[in-house]
Design goal:
Structural class: alpha+beta
Largest sheet: 6 strands, antiparallel
Number of strands: 27
Number of helices: 8
Helix content: 10-25%
Strand order of the largest sheet: 12-11-10-9-13-14
Shape: elongated
Oligomer: single chain
Distance between the termini: 69 Å
Radius of gyration: 30 Å
């Protein structure tokens, strides 16, 4: 490197000597006038000023759990100082939080805001880039709008920062387009297998109850949170992966049931019905408006959420016919493109609300209930604990392959020959686990930290155990039990 610098200096001397010879030969002055000094010589040229990129996302899901780590107590003190407009204290305590936990993104963001307020522009780019790279969806665009950063954005460095954000926005949206979305600790995250990076797409800190992919690049999600009156209520939000934006959840004022679906033609957008009321539409600008009375639900899958429970309703499934019962179960299905009839080993039943096509529509995946006579609440010694199984069937040949077993399961395709399987213990006490199965024979891969898919897990239905205190219902004239005697099985 030093030799190179010397060579550059020698070359510069030679060039000046040649210029002097040229001037003498042309009858000019033997000494050249120095060029005038440029105006604002101390300010770098914005055309060449650049902020190098930083890898977007985080290496694992645990990186997003900074509220559970050692830097959070200091950050909470910083928030108190922010509320009092004590910006010097904000900077001091945020630095303490980052010293205890260098990955505390909220502390990095607030530190950048504090440095901007104090006009310490030479210090703020590092924490600002730490926060925006780690969670671009939350802080990337926001960095161009935050009041404390507006004076900074007018400087050459600030203009370079704006260009950095626009470049990162393109990379962020591209990553979301190829990512798979899973649930972890009550929030939704996108995993980019190409870059092996995780991106946070909801930020409720554990409040997501259920979600539904309503379009290739849109996901509706329902949260359970405290309402304005302090009571628990459900709320609805939308993730737009194509724009890299997530709306804040809008309170619905009810514990449920809440129904969520999507309309592509009539009044396009996410439709939601809360508490048995009328349908409302959440448009692309995240504005909720009421639809006319007696508006009918559009065709397609819909999500039902009540309290802490979510259930997907997907029947009918395009290209698949079956004699579904009132629980969405059937002993066999017929595939329309090949007329193949597929069944699982008896006495198994196929759960129609889990049937899903691969992207190339060459295969179907579904969850089947293996034992139709399982008694609700039975101990493991009385009934099998793994009473559900994930299957894949070739749509052309009808060949059936069992993938995995569990107590409660969900399946979702992430490629023509790759299937994600989520399995839990079915009690809600133990989180599930997401495994990627490659149909080409590669070893299954566990997505460490993920505990659910977009589709909620399905637990096999069971037969209610007869109560010793309540006599069995007497059939009426038609041989049917009265409505108040029917016991509904758990979801």
């Amino acid at each position: 490197m030093r030799a190179g610098v010397r060579e550059m200096c020698y070359s510069a001397v030679c060039m000046r000597a040649l210029a002097l010879v040229f001037l003498v030969a042309c009858g000019g002055s033997k000494t050249a006038e120095p060029p005038p000094a440029p105006k604002d010589a101390g300010i770098p040229d914005t055309a060449v000023l650049d902020i190098p990129p930083r890898t977007l996302g985080m290496p694992d899901l645990a990186s997003y759990m900074w509220r559970k780590r050692g830097g959070h107590p200091a950050f909470r003190i910083a928030r108190i100082a922010e509320a009092k407009n004590q910006w010097a204290d904000v900077v001091t305590t945020c630095k303490q939080a980052l010293a205890a936990d260098p990955g505390h993104l909220e502390a990095a963001w607030l530190l950048a805001a504090g440095l901007g307020h104090l006009k310490k522009y030479d210090e703020l780019i590092a924490p600002l880039q730490l926060a925006t790279a780690g969670d671009f969806g939350k802080w990337g665009p926001a960095s161009l709008e935050l009041a404390e950063l507006q004076p900074f954005l007018k400087t050459p460095a600030g203009e370079a920062w704006s260009r950095r954000i626009e470049s990162d926005r393109v990379a962020y949206i591209a990553a979301l387009a190829r990512a798979v979305v899973v649930q972890a600790d009550g929030d939704l995250y996108a995993f980019d297998p190409e870059a092996d990076r995780w991106y946070r797409v909801t930020r409720t800190f554990g409040a997501v109850v259920g979600s539904l992919r309503v379009a290739p690049s849109k996901i509706a999600y329902v949260t359970r949170q405290r309402g304005k009156d302090g009571k628990a209520t459900l709320a609805i939000g939308v993730i737009d992966l194509a724009r890299g934006k997530t709306s804040r959840p809008l309170e619905l004022g009810t514990k449920g049931p809440v129904l969520v679906t999507y309309s592509a033609k009539q009044d396009p957008g996410v439709w939601v019905m809360a508490g048995g009321g009328v349908w409302k539409r959440l448009d692309d600008n995240f504005v909720l408006s009421t639809l006319p009375p007696k508006t009918q639900k559009p065709p397609g899958p819909w999500l039902e959420v009540k309290g802490r429970t979510a259930r997907l309703h997907a029947i009918p499934v395009a290209g698949v016919t079956a004699d579904w019962d009132d629980k969405g179960l059937a002993s066999a299905i017929q595939i329309g493109k090949s007329n193949r009839v597929v069944s699982v080993p008896a006495p198994g039943l196929i759960d129609g609300n889990t049937v899903t096509w691969s992207p190339d529509r060459a295969r179907l995946a579904f969850v089947a209930q293996l034992d139709e006579n399982r008694v609700c609440g039975a101990s493991p010694k009385d009934a099998p604990t793994n009473n559900a199984a994930a299957f894949v069937v070739d749509a052309t040949t009808g060949t059936l392959t069992e993938i995995e077993r569990g107590e409660s399961m969900a399946v979702e395709w992430i490629g023509d020959r790759k299937l994600m399987v989520d399995q839990g213990d079915g009690t809600g006490k133990k989180a599930g686990g997401v495994t990627v199965f490659d149909l080409d024979g590669k070893s299954p891969e566990l997505l460490a930290g993920a505990d659910g898919l977009l589709s909620p897990r399905r637990r096999p239905v069971c037969t209610p155990a007869p109560s010793e205190d309540t006599p069995p219902p007497d059939p009426d004239a038609n041989g049917e039990a009265s409505a108040d005697q029917v016991v509904e099985p758990p979801l």
